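User: Could you write out the 3D structure of this protein bound to protoporphyrin IX containing FE? I've included everything you need below.
Assistant: Certainly. Input first, then the structure.
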Amino acid sequence: MISPQAGASRSVVPGPPGLPVLGALPQVRKDPLQFLSRMVREYGDVVCLGGVGDKKFFLVTHPRDIEHVWKTNHRNYVKGANFQLLRPLAGNGLFLNEGESWRSQRRLLQPAFHVPRLMAMAQSITAAAEEMLADWQQRIQPGVPFDLEAEMMDLAIRISVETLFGSAVADDAETVNRSVSTAFSILHQRVLSALPFPWWVPLPGNIRFLRAVANLEEVVYDIIEERRQTGAEGHDVLSTLLSVRDEAGEAMPVRMVRDEVVTMLVAGHESTGITLSWTLYLLSRYPQIAHAVEEELAAVLGGRAPGFEDLPKLPYLGMVLKESLRLYPPFWLLTRTPLADDELDGHRIPAGAILLFSPYVTHRRPDFWPNPEAFDPERFRPEVVATRPPFAYYPLGGGPRVCIGGRLAEMQATLVLAALLQRYSFHALPGKRVEPAASLSLRPAGGLWMTLHERA
Ligand code: HEM
């Protein structure tokens, strides 16, 4: 993409005129996806969206510059603003932690996502999907619209609870489910709010949020305590957290264990629930692709429940999932702040600036994605992938801070889709296009109303 400003002084970053202090942020808030996409078309690869002094916002969408910030020069960057709202929930867990403390936590947590652990989790994921299908038999009538997104969120929380805590918490799953749902619905409103008061201001939403966090925390501390007392070992993430030792041979402090499990719950459930929802929606709009998935499932599984060993045998479903994450990356806006001045595409970026990265926008740049609005899993054939720069696609972030749960998320989504799509076909409501609503994550606006039909 050629910047319209090419040839002009490279030290002035192009961007729209806006209010002196807030810059273009009021417009970002109004219709963020359209606005940010327009900025790239009009101003090029690095766009200044205004701000005060060196505290300016820059939109960065070229894979070359993303790679520089996220990988090559990552030590010069911290996460910055946009996920700080999660602090009361996620504490100083991996998602928000920085520097040496982050590095040593990441090293300690990595084994929780190694293949033997994932293999052990696969069974409980399939079991949760089968349980939901049995429940649908009672509750959901073929041909009658229901909110598929609500169902997928519910399932994603159940799966998160199982993979994090194991099945021993069945009694508490409901409290976890309710607390996380409440906290997230308030977080979504807060992201859009023009005046985000700090959490301690006693407004009704804040009180409900902090109460939900407290309820969740109570359950989590109880589970940790019980596990520590019984010494029971499982394949869940909590078992890893309780068994790891740092270089001095010390166990992880309880507060840290709490922060890490709640971080995983927060980072993992919503993104997985959304991915499942968008994928089922896209398949309903592209029947030929849905048919190709069905054929693959029939050939590999022949109606039986999927397991870990089936994952490599379902490459087409894997490509469908990747393409769904291209069009609807759940984390559509990510931020980084440079600790020292840097340079991007010849422009000076001052320390303290807020860099905005939008996988949604980069994933639709026509210079890397021909016909970007079309749902086309063929883009993810290995030989086609090899023609693109690595950071043209980054729904899971990249570099050393790439999503630690990426493989788990992929496994969860593949196993659930394989179970669902063997039993049912899903249909979007005729004439109703579902638009994405961009707040904390990229959810279908107004839910995802669909119908289902049992396969013969
Ligand atoms: C489709 C599902 C998922 C998507 C799209 C997704 C996306 C992302 C992205 C974009 C980041 C980078 C954020 C940044 O650096 O600013 C990230 C980080 C992270 N994700 Fe995921 N995620 C998913 C599932 C999961 C799951 C299932 C878990 C855990 C069980 C998880 C745990 C984390 C954690 C702990 C981090 C922080 C890693 C670090 O900074 O070292 N995610 N995720």
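The radius of gyration is 22 Å.
User: Perfect, thank you.
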